[in-house]
User: Fold these one by one.
Assistant:
Number 1:
Amino acid sequence: MFRGGGNTDTNLTPRPGKDTEGEKRGLSTFDTPEKAARPGEKVQEIDVAKLGPDLEAFKTPDGHVSIRPKDDSKLGDWASQRGQPNDLTDQVRQGRVGEAKRT
């Protein structure tokens, strides 16, 4: 999966509000780099099989993949700590296998 942006605590943590509700709640990733970022922008490549033990991935038919806690009640707390070190953000990093620039 691919996440547009850099390898930062802010980018690898869901946003409060927008990312905490609905079918696509969680940290948004995509099945292709083209869906994740514009040409020339960074993308983080994430292997969902390597995510930490408290996270899981949900794919929708349009290629969107949400990474969220297995215990959905922890999503709001995780998002509220965006930009700060956090165990769930570290678990996303466990699945990170590379960084590239989208062509």
Number 2:
Amino acid sequence: MEVYYSTSGERCAVVCEGAGLRDAFVGARMSETVAQMTKDELQELIESSLETKLRELLGDPDEGLELKKVVRDRLLRQKKAVAAGERGEPLSDVVRRLGLA
């Protein structure tokens, strides 16, 4: 792990390499190591690293695919309806209808 600091002494990035993962974690204080990170900071670092690696490996599964005409038309209708001020069903109504309350 490499830690980089700004001229004011704040940690500006922690770069971790391991299991093929490399990611930058921004924030926190000057002399922090992984052992000194909070649970939330470590979790954010791991999640960010995994997300970066998964995007790298998997990419966008829909990239290069063509949107079907029926889907495109429905999305355009929804966009126009929202622009005209129309809204969908209120969340409270959906919660009641589905018995989630």
Number 3:
Amino acid sequence: MEQEFELIAGCEGVRNEIREADRLTQSGAYDGAEDALKRAEELKRELHALQTSLIGEWEGSMTPLVAHAMDHVFSFDLEIGAARRFNELARRIDRLERNG
């Protein structure tokens, strides 16, 4: 059970980096936002490795907590991708507005 909580707690670190990327994008710090997304991806990779190492232990004992933890990790690809697209679009809009 402790490892499941570790997995869920680690998810908060990924979400914090995604939120930071969003905040930086909104302030025009596009490179900083990309750095935050890279940190989010690295944390996600670490969580995925932990999740993968635990799957054998979870076999036949899928609890709501385990399902919740897995949902978090699986959703990060979409969230990071959306944040990256937002950053790219905001950067393009900013460039177009400056160049007329």
